[in-house]
């Protein structure tokens, strides 16, 4: 495997801490959400995961659409990452709701499923967390 890019971030303090990237572009506090007993008021790991997965997934989706001659420039994905208790500890789950204007529902689902097979974030989570990909 050839590395094309490596992101580097230093995290301190856990869920109530600070994140800073080596290039300084990311430099902010993280807080546990109120729903998890925290004070809220800052981003959290689940939001960051959703924010990273969404654009990566859309990149895969647009690549597949381009190869098939489908216009998907206006495609959107609503990524929801949930922090769950599963009886053995904690686990994440994800829901990706995919919309491609002007395309039939069945065709959106087909392209969405193909994108889920090729997106690096989708591949990284395969078999590790519950994921639902749905055309909307």
From TrEMBL:
Top-level taxonomic group: Bacteria
GO-annotated biological processes: response to oxidative stress
Family designation: Belongs to the OsmC/Ohr family.
Protein's UniProt name: Organic hydroperoxide resistance protein
Organism of this sequence: Pedobacter cryotolerans
